[in-house]
């Protein structure tokens, strides 16, 4: 059996951490270690995790000496992992019992096809719920209109479509990734870009977990509807444009970090994406069409054009 590291970053997680830990412990696939790093919680999180660590020998637990924030907390866990496969767990979700099993099965199929030396990332869909696990959306990716049929570097530069809590990556991807850049928008976004640039991405079109949507989420899931799109439009061009500019800044960091490893074609794509910051109107539209720098969903692409007119 293949050893898997499950990385969990916690902070003031007392309300949900026990249910999440139990859902991982109850997995049908058993050969895994849970590595938890707490970011100086002030509630009962540390006591709850300590209790589980005493009960299960496959749980390791550390407390940061200073507050790192969610990205850097996950990044240090990632850097310290030596397992063949790595998964990420949010502290407030609930995994379906076969989450590891079916994700690993997909990973092995792709490694058989492309080799285990190929950097590979697998991600899945998820069910969005409220804080009490009442279902809001049976498919997060469908409600967001994510295009999971065309997962290319071009599209990912404009926006991420995968959540870290649904991911599995192999050691080949970790090796080529090295350190997750400290200026990454999110750890999962950086890993998706790395997989698109250097390896392969696989998608499982079925949910493997409940994803809680509540006020304490670091990253939320919003229904992709005309009402929601109109609300975003009303907030003004600046908010949409700032998101794109952050993506461009991340692309610049990505290019700087991997310049010596990237293929000429991928360097070209990233450089063309970076030039978007200097374009608007027809020039901007022509560039996103020519290089397929699309977001997922018609409404999001309308908003993209609207922001740069």
- Biggest pleated sheet: 9 strands, mixed
**Tally of structural domains:** 2
Protein structure class: alpha/beta
Give the % helix: 40-55%
Number of helical runs? 13
Q: Architecture of the largest domain, CATH level 2?
A: Alpha-Beta Complex
Q: How many strand units?
A: 9
Find the CATH superfamily of the largest domain: Spore Coat Polysaccharide Biosynthesis Protein SpsA, Chain A
Query: What's the SSE pattern?
Result: EHEHEHEEHEEHHEHHEHHHHH
CATH class of the largest domain: Alpha Beta
Distance between the termini: 54 Å
Q: Work out the oligomeric state of the chains in this entry.
A: single chain
CATH topology group of the largest domain: Spore Coat Polysaccharide Biosynthesis Protein SpsA, Chain A
Enumerate the spans where pLDDT stays under 50 for 5 or more consecutive residues.
none
Mean pLDDT reading: 92
């Amino acid at each position: 059996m293949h050893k898997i590291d499950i990385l969990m970053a916690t902070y003031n997680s007392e309300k949900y951490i026990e249910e999440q830990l139990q859902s991982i412990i109850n997995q049908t696939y058993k050969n895994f270690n849970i590595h938890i790093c707490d970011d100086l919680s002030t509630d009962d999180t540390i006591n709850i995790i300590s209790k589980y660590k005493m009960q299960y020998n496959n749980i390791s637990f550390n407390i940061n000496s200073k507050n790192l924030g969610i990205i850097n907390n996950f990044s240090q866990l990632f850097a310290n992992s030596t397992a063949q496969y790595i998964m990420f767990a949010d502290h407030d979700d609930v995994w379906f019992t076969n989450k590891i099993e079916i994700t690993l099965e997909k990973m092995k199929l792709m490694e058989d096809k492309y080799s285990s030396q190929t950097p590979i990332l697998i991600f899945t869909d998820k069910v969005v719920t409220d804080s009490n696990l009442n279902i809001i959306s049976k498919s997060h990716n469908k409600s967001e209109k994510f295009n999971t049929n065309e997962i290319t570097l071009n599209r990912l530069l404009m926006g991420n479509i995968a959540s870290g809590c649904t991911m599995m990556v192999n050691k080949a991807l970790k090796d080529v990734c090295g350190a997750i850049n400290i200026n990454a928008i999110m750890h999962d976004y950086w890993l998706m870009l790395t997989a698109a640039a250097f390896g392969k991405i696989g998608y499982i079109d079925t949910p493997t977990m409940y994803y809680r949507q509540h006020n304490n989420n670091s990253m939320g899931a919003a229904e992709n509807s005309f009402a929601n799109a109109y609300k975003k439009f009303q907030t003004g061009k600046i908010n949409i444009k700032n998101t794109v500019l952050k993506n461009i800044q991340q692309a610049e960091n990505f290019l700087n970090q991997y310049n010596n490893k990237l293929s000429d074609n991928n360097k070209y794509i990233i450089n063309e994406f970076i030039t978007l910051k200097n374009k608007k109107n027809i020039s901007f539209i022509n560039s996103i069409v020519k290089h397929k720098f699309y977001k997922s969903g018609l409404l999001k692409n309308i908003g993209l054009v609207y922001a740069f007119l």
